Amino acid sequence: MPLDSLKDRIESLVWTPARDTGLLRLARTVLILGRDLAFGQLTLRAMGLVYTTLLSIVPLLALSFSVLKAFGVTNQIQPMLLNLLAPLGEKGGEIALRITGFIDNMNVGVLGAVGLALLLYTSISLIQKIEESLNYIWHAPRTRPLGERFTRYLTVLMVGPILVFSALGATATVMNIELVRGLMSVEVLSQLVQALSRLVPYLLITAAFTFIYLFMPNTRVRLWPAIVGGAVGGLAWQTAGWAFALFISTSNNYAAIYASFAIVILFMIWLYLSWLVLLFGASVAFYVQHPEYLYLRGGEPRLSNRMRERLALAIMELVARRFVHGEAAPSQETFTQHLKVPGHVLMVVLDELERKALVVATVEEPCRYLPARSPARILLADVLEAVRAAGEDGFLSPAGVPTTVAVDRLVTQLQQAAATSLAGMSLHDLVQQGNATPADPGPAEEVLRAGTGQRMGQTAKG
Protein backbone atom coordinates (compact mmCIF):
# COMPACT_ATOMS: atom_id res chain seq x y z
CA MET A 1 0.00 0.00 0.00
CA PRO A 2 1.49 3.41 -0.96
CA LEU A 3 2.55 5.56 1.96
CA ASP A 4 0.32 8.47 0.93
CA SER A 5 -2.70 6.18 0.71
CA LEU A 6 -1.98 4.79 4.18
CA LYS A 7 -1.65 8.32 5.54
CA ASP A 8 -4.99 9.31 4.00
CA ARG A 9 -6.71 6.28 5.52
CA ILE A 10 -5.30 7.04 8.98
CA GLU A 11 -6.40 10.68 8.73
CA SER A 12 -9.86 9.58 7.60
CA LEU A 13 -10.11 7.15 10.51
CA VAL A 14 -8.93 9.60 13.19
CA TRP A 15 -10.34 12.91 11.97
CA THR A 16 -13.77 12.01 10.58
CA PRO A 17 -16.17 14.41 12.38
CA ALA A 18 -18.88 11.73 12.61
CA ARG A 19 -16.63 9.66 14.85
CA ASP A 20 -16.10 11.14 18.30
CA THR A 21 -15.36 8.25 20.65
CA GLY A 22 -13.19 8.65 23.71
CA LEU A 23 -10.36 6.61 22.15
CA LEU A 24 -10.36 8.71 18.96
CA ARG A 25 -10.39 11.92 20.99
CA LEU A 26 -7.38 10.66 22.95
CA ALA A 27 -5.59 9.84 19.67
CA ARG A 28 -6.39 13.30 18.31
CA THR A 29 -5.13 14.94 21.50
CA VAL A 30 -1.84 13.00 21.37
CA LEU A 31 -1.32 13.91 17.71
CA ILE A 32 -2.11 17.59 18.29
CA LEU A 33 0.19 17.76 21.33
CA GLY A 34 2.98 16.20 19.29
CA ARG A 35 2.37 18.74 16.53
CA ASP A 36 2.43 21.62 19.02
CA LEU A 37 5.72 20.42 20.47
CA ALA A 38 7.30 19.93 17.05
CA PHE A 39 5.97 22.96 15.17
CA GLY A 40 4.25 25.19 17.71
CA GLN A 41 5.56 27.96 19.94
CA LEU A 42 5.86 25.88 23.13
CA THR A 43 9.61 25.40 22.70
CA LEU A 44 10.15 29.05 21.79
CA ARG A 45 8.19 30.29 24.81
CA ALA A 46 10.00 27.82 27.09
CA MET A 47 13.31 29.30 25.91
CA GLY A 48 12.03 32.80 26.66
CA LEU A 49 11.04 31.71 30.16
CA VAL A 50 14.55 30.32 30.72
CA TYR A 51 16.10 33.70 29.90
CA THR A 52 13.64 35.54 32.16
CA THR A 53 14.23 33.01 34.96
CA LEU A 54 18.00 33.56 34.88
CA LEU A 55 17.43 37.31 35.32
CA SER A 56 14.74 37.12 37.98
CA ILE A 57 15.32 33.96 40.04
CA VAL A 58 17.41 35.60 42.77
CA PRO A 59 15.19 38.72 43.22
CA LEU A 60 12.08 36.54 42.99
CA LEU A 61 13.23 34.13 45.68
CA ALA A 62 14.58 36.94 47.86
CA LEU A 63 11.27 38.81 47.71
CA SER A 64 9.17 35.70 48.23
CA PHE A 65 11.12 34.14 51.04
CA SER A 66 11.56 37.42 52.91
CA VAL A 67 7.95 36.89 54.04
CA LEU A 68 8.90 33.53 55.53
CA LYS A 69 11.32 35.00 58.04
CA ALA A 70 8.40 35.75 60.34
CA PHE A 71 7.49 32.05 60.24
CA GLY A 72 11.00 30.81 60.98
CA VAL A 73 11.24 28.54 57.96
CA THR A 74 13.99 30.27 56.02
CA ASN A 75 16.31 27.37 56.87
CA GLN A 76 14.13 25.19 54.62
CA ILE A 77 14.85 27.21 51.49
CA GLN A 78 18.03 25.35 50.62
CA PRO A 79 16.50 21.84 51.11
CA MET A 80 13.62 22.79 48.81
CA LEU A 81 16.02 24.08 46.16
CA LEU A 82 18.00 20.86 46.49
CA ASN A 83 14.85 18.87 45.76
CA LEU A 84 14.01 20.99 42.73
CA LEU A 85 17.56 20.72 41.39
CA ALA A 86 18.04 17.05 42.33
CA PRO A 87 18.22 15.93 38.65
CA LEU A 88 21.46 17.94 38.33
CA GLY A 89 23.19 15.68 40.86
CA GLU A 90 26.16 17.22 42.67
CA LYS A 91 25.95 20.30 40.47
CA GLY A 92 22.43 20.92 41.78
CA GLY A 93 23.75 21.21 45.33
CA GLU A 94 26.34 23.73 44.21
CA ILE A 95 23.75 25.84 42.39
CA ALA A 96 21.37 25.74 45.39
CA LEU A 97 24.21 26.85 47.69
CA ARG A 98 25.06 29.79 45.43
CA ILE A 99 21.44 30.90 45.06
CA THR A 100 20.87 30.86 48.82
CA GLY A 101 24.12 32.79 49.24
CA PHE A 102 22.87 35.47 46.86
CA ILE A 103 19.58 35.66 48.77
CA ASP A 104 21.34 36.02 52.11
CA ASN A 105 23.61 38.76 50.76
CA MET A 106 20.73 40.80 49.31
CA ASN A 107 19.84 43.70 51.59
CA VAL A 108 16.63 45.36 50.45
CA GLY A 109 17.13 48.27 52.86
CA VAL A 110 20.18 49.63 51.03
CA LEU A 111 18.69 49.43 47.54
CA GLY A 112 16.82 52.70 47.66
CA ALA A 113 13.57 53.54 45.87
CA VAL A 114 14.92 52.94 42.36
CA GLY A 115 16.63 49.71 43.33
CA LEU A 116 13.52 48.43 45.07
CA ALA A 117 11.40 49.27 42.03
CA LEU A 118 13.83 47.37 39.77
CA LEU A 119 13.75 44.46 42.21
CA LEU A 120 9.95 44.34 42.07
CA TYR A 121 9.91 44.66 38.27
CA THR A 122 12.45 41.87 37.83
CA SER A 123 10.49 39.61 40.16
CA ILE A 124 7.13 40.36 38.52
CA SER A 125 8.47 40.01 34.97
CA LEU A 126 8.79 36.23 35.34
CA ILE A 127 5.19 35.84 36.51
CA GLN A 128 4.03 38.14 33.71
CA LYS A 129 5.93 36.01 31.19
CA ILE A 130 4.27 32.86 32.55
CA GLU A 131 0.84 34.48 32.25
CA GLU A 132 1.53 35.56 28.65
CA SER A 133 2.60 32.02 27.70
CA LEU A 134 -0.47 30.46 29.31
CA ASN A 135 -2.74 33.05 27.67
CA TYR A 136 -1.24 32.06 24.33
CA ILE A 137 -1.99 28.40 24.97
CA TRP A 138 -5.54 29.19 26.13
CA HIS A 139 -6.15 31.61 23.23
CA ALA A 140 -6.89 34.46 25.63
CA PRO A 141 -5.83 37.63 23.75
CA ARG A 142 -7.19 40.04 26.34
CA THR A 143 -4.95 40.82 29.29
CA ARG A 144 -6.17 41.53 32.79
CA PRO A 145 -6.44 45.11 34.03
CA LEU A 146 -3.23 46.46 35.55
CA GLY A 147 -4.63 46.55 39.08
CA GLU A 148 -5.82 42.95 38.95
CA ARG A 149 -2.50 41.76 37.55
CA PHE A 150 -0.57 43.56 40.29
CA THR A 151 -2.78 41.98 42.98
CA ARG A 152 -2.41 38.49 41.54
CA TYR A 153 1.34 38.80 41.15
CA LEU A 154 1.80 39.95 44.73
CA THR A 155 -0.40 37.05 45.87
CA VAL A 156 1.88 34.59 44.10
CA LEU A 157 5.01 36.25 45.48
CA MET A 158 3.84 36.59 49.07
CA VAL A 159 1.27 33.88 49.72
CA GLY A 160 2.65 31.16 47.44
CA PRO A 161 5.75 30.32 49.54
CA ILE A 162 3.68 30.36 52.74
CA LEU A 163 1.26 27.79 51.31
CA VAL A 164 4.10 25.57 50.08
CA PHE A 165 5.92 25.50 53.40
CA SER A 166 2.66 25.16 55.30
CA ALA A 167 1.89 22.03 53.32
CA LEU A 168 5.37 20.64 53.97
CA GLY A 169 5.10 21.51 57.67
CA ALA A 170 1.68 19.88 57.96
CA THR A 171 3.05 16.70 56.38
CA ALA A 172 5.97 16.62 58.82
CA THR A 173 3.64 17.27 61.77
CA VAL A 174 1.33 14.43 60.81
CA MET A 175 4.26 12.05 60.49
CA ASN A 176 5.40 12.93 64.04
CA ILE A 177 2.04 12.28 65.71
CA GLU A 178 2.30 9.42 68.20
CA LEU A 179 -0.70 7.61 66.70
CA VAL A 180 0.87 7.69 63.24
CA ARG A 181 4.14 6.40 64.66
CA GLY A 182 2.26 3.55 66.28
CA LEU A 183 0.56 2.68 63.02
CA MET A 184 3.88 2.75 61.19
CA SER A 185 5.20 0.08 63.55
CA VAL A 186 2.91 -2.33 61.70
CA GLU A 187 4.90 -3.67 58.75
CA VAL A 188 2.10 -3.52 56.19
CA LEU A 189 1.14 0.03 57.16
CA SER A 190 4.78 1.06 57.27
CA GLN A 191 5.30 -0.12 53.70
CA LEU A 192 2.12 1.68 52.66
CA VAL A 193 3.27 4.93 54.29
CA GLN A 194 6.67 4.62 52.63
CA ALA A 195 5.02 4.10 49.26
CA LEU A 196 2.81 7.14 49.83
CA SER A 197 5.81 9.21 50.91
CA ARG A 198 7.39 8.52 47.54
CA LEU A 199 4.28 9.97 45.92
CA VAL A 200 4.48 13.21 47.92
CA PRO A 201 6.85 15.00 45.49
CA TYR A 202 4.63 14.00 42.57
CA LEU A 203 1.48 15.12 44.39
CA LEU A 204 3.05 18.45 45.36
CA ILE A 205 4.20 19.27 41.81
CA THR A 206 0.80 18.17 40.48
CA ALA A 207 -0.94 20.48 42.95
CA ALA A 208 1.41 23.34 42.01
CA PHE A 209 0.77 22.85 38.28
CA THR A 210 -2.99 22.62 38.86
CA PHE A 211 -2.93 25.86 40.86
CA ILE A 212 -0.99 27.64 38.09
CA TYR A 213 -3.40 26.42 35.40
CA LEU A 214 -6.38 27.60 37.43
CA PHE A 215 -4.93 30.90 38.61
CA MET A 216 -2.77 32.32 35.82
CA PRO A 217 -4.62 32.23 32.45
CA ASN A 218 -6.95 35.14 31.79
CA THR A 219 -9.89 32.84 31.14
CA ARG A 220 -12.12 30.52 33.12
CA VAL A 221 -10.42 27.16 33.58
CA ARG A 222 -12.54 24.35 34.95
CA LEU A 223 -11.18 22.29 37.82
CA TRP A 224 -11.19 18.88 36.13
CA PRO A 225 -9.15 19.92 33.03
CA ALA A 226 -6.68 21.71 35.33
CA ILE A 227 -6.30 18.55 37.44
CA VAL A 228 -5.76 16.41 34.34
CA GLY A 229 -3.16 18.86 33.01
CA GLY A 230 -1.49 19.06 36.42
CA ALA A 231 -1.35 15.26 36.72
CA VAL A 232 0.12 14.85 33.23
CA GLY A 233 2.54 17.71 33.84
CA GLY A 234 3.59 16.31 37.23
CA LEU A 235 4.20 12.87 35.75
CA ALA A 236 6.14 14.37 32.85
CA TRP A 237 8.20 16.51 35.24
CA GLN A 238 9.12 13.54 37.41
CA THR A 239 9.96 11.46 34.33
CA ALA A 240 12.05 14.26 32.84
CA GLY A 241 13.90 14.63 36.16
CA TRP A 242 14.66 10.92 36.28
CA ALA A 243 15.83 10.86 32.64
CA PHE A 244 17.96 13.99 33.08
CA ALA A 245 19.59 12.63 36.24
CA LEU A 246 20.34 9.37 34.39
CA PHE A 247 21.87 11.33 31.52
CA ILE A 248 24.14 13.31 33.84
CA SER A 249 25.25 10.24 35.79
CA THR A 250 26.17 8.33 32.63
CA SER A 251 27.84 11.13 30.69
CA ASN A 252 31.02 12.93 31.66
CA ASN A 253 31.73 14.54 28.30
CA TYR A 254 29.87 17.75 29.10
CA ALA A 255 32.43 18.65 31.80
CA ALA A 256 35.31 18.10 29.38
CA ILE A 257 33.63 20.24 26.70
CA TYR A 258 32.28 23.14 28.76
CA ALA A 259 34.72 23.02 31.72
CA SER A 260 33.58 25.52 34.37
CA PHE A 261 30.57 26.55 32.26
CA ALA A 262 29.12 23.04 32.50
CA ILE A 263 27.15 23.87 35.64
CA VAL A 264 25.49 26.87 33.94
CA ILE A 265 24.70 24.90 30.77
CA LEU A 266 23.14 22.04 32.74
CA PHE A 267 21.12 24.45 34.85
CA MET A 268 19.75 26.15 31.73
CA ILE A 269 18.85 22.81 30.12
CA TRP A 270 16.99 21.70 33.23
CA LEU A 271 15.15 25.04 33.40
CA TYR A 272 14.17 24.63 29.75
CA LEU A 273 12.82 21.12 30.33
CA SER A 274 10.91 22.26 33.42
CA TRP A 275 9.21 25.16 31.63
CA LEU A 276 8.46 23.00 28.60
CA VAL A 277 6.77 20.46 30.86
CA LEU A 278 4.72 23.22 32.51
CA LEU A 279 3.53 24.52 29.12
CA PHE A 280 2.88 20.97 27.90
CA GLY A 281 0.61 20.31 30.88
CA ALA A 282 -1.22 23.57 30.16
CA SER A 283 -1.82 22.38 26.59
CA VAL A 284 -3.23 19.11 27.90
CA ALA A 285 -5.63 21.00 30.18
CA PHE A 286 -6.66 23.27 27.31
CA TYR A 287 -7.51 20.43 24.92
CA VAL A 288 -9.39 18.56 27.65
CA GLN A 289 -11.59 21.62 28.22
CA HIS A 290 -11.83 22.61 24.55
CA PRO A 291 -11.95 19.50 22.32
CA GLU A 292 -13.31 21.66 19.49
CA TYR A 293 -9.72 22.83 18.92
CA LEU A 294 -8.68 19.33 17.90
CA TYR A 295 -8.61 19.85 14.15
CA LEU A 296 -6.23 18.34 11.63
CA ARG A 297 -4.52 21.30 10.02
CA GLY A 298 -1.94 23.26 11.93
CA GLY A 299 -1.91 27.01 12.47
CA GLU A 300 -4.75 29.39 13.12
CA PRO A 301 -7.84 28.72 10.98
CA ARG A 302 -8.73 31.49 8.53
CA LEU A 303 -12.33 32.40 7.95
CA SER A 304 -13.77 32.79 4.49
CA ASN A 305 -16.13 35.69 3.82
CA ARG A 306 -19.05 33.25 3.68
CA MET A 307 -18.07 31.81 7.06
CA ARG A 308 -17.80 35.27 8.61
CA GLU A 309 -21.28 36.15 7.41
CA ARG A 310 -22.74 32.88 8.64
CA LEU A 311 -21.11 33.21 12.07
CA ALA A 312 -22.15 36.86 12.40
CA LEU A 313 -25.79 36.06 11.68
CA ALA A 314 -25.76 33.00 13.95
CA ILE A 315 -24.15 34.96 16.80
CA MET A 316 -26.57 37.87 16.49
CA GLU A 317 -29.55 35.51 16.24
CA LEU A 318 -28.53 33.70 19.45
CA VAL A 319 -27.90 36.96 21.30
CA ALA A 320 -31.23 38.44 20.22
CA ARG A 321 -33.23 35.25 20.84
CA ARG A 322 -32.01 35.01 24.43
CA PHE A 323 -32.61 38.71 24.94
CA VAL A 324 -36.18 38.56 23.58
CA HIS A 325 -37.06 35.43 25.59
CA GLY A 326 -35.53 36.81 28.81
CA GLU A 327 -32.87 34.09 29.04
CA ALA A 328 -29.29 34.40 30.27
CA ALA A 329 -27.06 36.30 27.88
CA PRO A 330 -24.60 34.02 26.02
CA SER A 331 -20.90 33.96 26.76
CA GLN A 332 -18.05 32.91 24.50
CA GLU A 333 -18.32 29.38 25.85
CA THR A 334 -22.04 29.37 24.97
CA PHE A 335 -21.26 30.31 21.37
CA THR A 336 -18.63 27.58 21.22
CA GLN A 337 -21.04 24.93 22.46
CA HIS A 338 -23.82 25.96 20.08
CA LEU A 339 -21.79 26.64 16.94
CA LYS A 340 -18.98 24.06 17.44
CA VAL A 341 -16.37 26.64 16.46
CA PRO A 342 -13.15 27.39 18.42
CA GLY A 343 -13.35 30.40 20.69
CA HIS A 344 -10.55 32.43 19.10
CA VAL A 345 -12.29 32.09 15.71
CA LEU A 346 -15.51 33.39 17.23
CA MET A 347 -13.66 36.30 18.82
CA VAL A 348 -12.64 37.56 15.37
CA VAL A 349 -16.32 38.04 14.52
CA LEU A 350 -17.43 39.03 18.04
CA ASP A 351 -14.82 41.78 18.31
CA GLU A 352 -15.92 43.24 14.98
CA LEU A 353 -19.60 43.15 15.96
CA GLU A 354 -18.73 44.87 19.24
CA ARG A 355 -16.62 47.46 17.46
CA LYS A 356 -19.52 48.25 15.11
CA ALA A 357 -21.82 48.74 18.16
CA LEU A 358 -24.05 45.77 17.32
CA VAL A 359 -23.36 43.90 20.58
CA VAL A 360 -21.99 44.96 23.96
CA ALA A 361 -19.99 42.85 26.42
CA THR A 362 -20.69 42.88 30.14
CA VAL A 363 -17.94 43.56 32.67
CA GLU A 364 -18.48 40.32 34.58
CA GLU A 365 -16.24 37.28 34.22
CA PRO A 366 -16.81 35.52 31.93
CA CYS A 367 -18.25 38.38 29.92
CA ARG A 368 -21.64 37.95 28.28
CA TYR A 369 -23.00 39.58 25.16
CA LEU A 370 -26.18 41.63 24.76
CA PRO A 371 -27.68 43.50 21.79
CA ALA A 372 -26.36 47.04 21.65
CA ARG A 373 -29.91 48.25 21.02
CA SER A 374 -33.35 46.79 20.45
CA PRO A 375 -33.22 43.82 18.02
CA ALA A 376 -35.99 45.50 16.01
CA ARG A 377 -33.58 48.38 15.30
CA ILE A 378 -30.66 46.19 14.18
CA LEU A 379 -30.87 45.50 10.45
CA LEU A 380 -29.44 42.28 9.07
CA ALA A 381 -27.86 44.32 6.29
CA ASP A 382 -25.85 46.17 8.95
CA VAL A 383 -24.70 42.86 10.46
CA LEU A 384 -23.47 41.58 7.10
CA GLU A 385 -21.85 44.91 6.26
CA ALA A 386 -19.98 44.89 9.59
CA VAL A 387 -18.16 41.63 8.85
CA ARG A 388 -17.71 42.36 5.13
CA ALA A 389 -16.02 45.69 5.88
CA ALA A 390 -13.85 44.29 8.69
CA GLY A 391 -10.29 45.59 8.42
CA GLU A 392 -10.99 48.14 5.69
CA ASP A 393 -10.10 51.04 7.98
CA GLY A 394 -6.58 49.68 8.27
CA PHE A 395 -3.93 49.41 5.58
CA LEU A 396 -6.20 48.60 2.63
CA SER A 397 -9.66 49.84 1.67
CA PRO A 398 -11.80 49.41 -1.48
CA ALA A 399 -11.25 53.05 -2.39
CA GLY A 400 -7.50 52.47 -2.53
CA VAL A 401 -7.72 49.65 -5.08
CA PRO A 402 -7.87 50.95 -8.68
CA THR A 403 -10.52 49.04 -10.66
CA THR A 404 -12.28 49.45 -13.98
CA VAL A 405 -15.74 50.92 -14.41
CA ALA A 406 -17.14 47.47 -15.16
CA VAL A 407 -15.84 46.06 -11.86
CA ASP A 408 -17.17 49.05 -9.90
CA ARG A 409 -20.59 48.65 -11.54
CA LEU A 410 -20.71 44.92 -10.74
CA VAL A 411 -19.73 45.48 -7.09
CA THR A 412 -22.41 48.14 -6.75
CA GLN A 413 -25.01 45.79 -8.26
CA LEU A 414 -24.07 43.05 -5.80
CA GLN A 415 -24.37 45.41 -2.84
CA GLN A 416 -27.73 46.70 -4.03
CA ALA A 417 -28.97 43.14 -4.62
CA ALA A 418 -28.03 42.14 -1.07
CA ALA A 419 -29.76 45.18 0.41
CA THR A 420 -32.87 44.58 -1.69
CA SER A 421 -33.09 40.89 -0.82
CA LEU A 422 -33.02 41.65 2.90
CA ALA A 423 -35.67 44.36 2.38
CA GLY A 424 -35.13 46.06 5.73
CA MET A 425 -35.30 42.78 7.64
CA SER A 426 -34.32 43.25 11.29
CA LEU A 427 -32.74 40.97 13.83
CA HIS A 428 -36.10 40.70 15.60
CA ASP A 429 -37.63 39.36 12.35
CA LEU A 430 -34.93 36.70 12.23
CA VAL A 431 -35.72 35.61 15.78
CA GLN A 432 -39.43 35.46 15.01
CA GLN A 433 -38.84 32.90 12.27
CA GLY A 434 -38.16 30.41 15.04
CA ASN A 435 -35.69 27.57 15.20
CA ALA A 436 -35.37 25.30 12.20
CA THR A 437 -34.76 21.57 12.51
CA PRO A 438 -31.20 20.34 11.86
CA ALA A 439 -32.28 18.97 8.48
CA ASP A 440 -33.61 22.36 7.38
CA PRO A 441 -31.52 25.45 6.72
CA GLY A 442 -31.37 27.83 9.67
CA PRO A 443 -32.75 31.36 9.52
CA ALA A 444 -29.32 32.81 8.81
CA GLU A 445 -28.75 30.41 5.94
CA GLU A 446 -32.20 31.13 4.49
CA VAL A 447 -31.43 34.82 4.43
CA LEU A 448 -28.06 34.25 2.79
CA ARG A 449 -29.52 31.81 0.26
CA ALA A 450 -32.32 34.22 -0.65
CA GLY A 451 -29.82 37.04 -0.97
CA THR A 452 -27.56 34.95 -3.18
CA GLY A 453 -30.44 34.02 -5.49
CA GLN A 454 -31.59 37.61 -5.73
CA ARG A 455 -28.07 38.78 -6.48
CA MET A 456 -27.61 36.18 -9.22
CA GLY A 457 -30.92 37.17 -10.80
CA GLN A 458 -30.15 40.87 -10.79
CA THR A 459 -26.62 40.26 -12.04
CA ALA A 460 -27.96 38.22 -14.95
CA LYS A 461 -30.45 41.02 -15.80
CA GLY A 462 -27.69 43.59 -15.64
Number of domains in the coordinates? 2
Number of strands: 2
Low-confidence stretches: 436-462
What share of residues is helical? over 70%
Rg for CA atoms: 29 Å
Topology order in helix (H) and strand (E) letters: HHHHHHHHHHHHHHHEEHHHH
Largest sheet: 2 strands, antiparallel
Q: Going across the major beta sheet, what is the strand order?
A: 1-2
- Give the amount of beta strand, in percent: under 5%
Shape category: elongated
Number of helices: 19
Helices and strands, with pairings:
Layout: H1 3-15, H2 22-39, H3 42-65, H4 77-84, H5 90-105, H6 112-137, H7 146-176, H8 178-184, H9 187-215, H10 223-250, H11 253-258, H12 262-289, H13 305-324, H14 332-339, H15 343-355, E1 359-361, E2 369-371, H16 380-388, H17 405-422, H18 427-432, H19 443-461
Antiparallel strand pairs: 1-2
Helix pairs in contact: 3-5, 3-6, 3-7, 3-12, 4-5, 6-7, 9-10, 10-12, 13-15, 13-16, 13-19, 17-19
Report on this model:
The protein has 462 residues and is an all-alpha fold. The protein folds into 2 domains: 40-293, no CATH class; 305-461, Winged helix-like DNA-binding domain superfamily/Winged helix DNA-binding domain (Arc Repressor Mutant, subunit A). The protein has helices at 3-15, 22-39, 42-65, 77-84, 90-105, 112-137, 146-176, 178-184, 187-215, 223-250, 253-258, 262-289, 305-324, 332-339, 343-355, 380-388, 405-422, 427-432, 443-461; strands at residues 359-361, 369-371. It has a two-stranded antiparallel ribbon with strand order 1-2. Strand 1 (359-361) and strand 2 (369-371) form a beta hairpin. Helix 3 (42-65) packs antiparallel against helix 6, helix 9 crosses helix 10 and helix 13 crosses helix 19. The longest helix is centred in the middle third of the chain and has 31 residues, at 146-176.
